[in-house]
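ok trying this again, last paste got cut off
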Amino acid sequence: MIIVSARKDFGNPDQLLPTGHLIKEIDFGRNAVIAPDIEVGQLTQQLAGKRVLMLVHGYNNEQDEVHDAYQIIEEKIADKLPDVYDLVLGYSWPGGDKRIEWWTGKHRANSVARRFRFLIELFAGQAAKLDLMSHSLGARVVLKALKECDQKDLVRNFWCTAPAVDHECLEPDKEFSRALPSCERIFVFHSARDDVLRLAFFTAEREPALGLFGPEDRQWVSSRAKRVFVANCKHCVDHHGGYKHTNQLYWYISSYVERDPAKFKTL
């Protein structure tokens, strides 16, 4: 997998690169770097005409943990969605490596979003289709980047698993309402059995997370939010990191990558 990293020295969990990104191609099976110094322009050219999925991890991950998660997702997609994507990319940002760094991690998620925005604008300009998949605090990286984009329908699908953002944040005049036009469709995957969001997120933010019960205003989703769809994963996801292992997630993606599901669906 090609990994695009905003981390200092590629793998530092606590510090951003001063500018830009480092890009490497890594063979996860052999734990070997295949191409150590890929230029952004080279990678952008490689995406021409391809259906691309870009992964964005969440809070509290060492670089090896990021690679482990991305390897699982890449293998699941190859097995369950062989005809959906031509290329899966990984994005790495310094989300910290300790549970007590929430506010620092949130600050870095906001900081990295601007450079992530420029990256997805480049990629979307070349790829046939660009989809994004985030987990946890990675939702903030993506949503803030999309919020700052000027181009409508830049991203086709945003698969947003366990989003560690406020449950009102997509609604009109809320923090990320202006992210919606930049994405054709946003899919919120949530589970009430997610103890990290139920306990840690609420303790820090004093608000329920979008990834716990989904959007607060279901009527708004049903009648006005044409781009937002919600998948309740309480029957198949019983912990915060469970989405990447869950076959129902990949079935949902393969079923609705090109068409709309019901506004609310239980997996």
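PB: full thing came through this time. The two ends are 29 Å apart (CA to CA).
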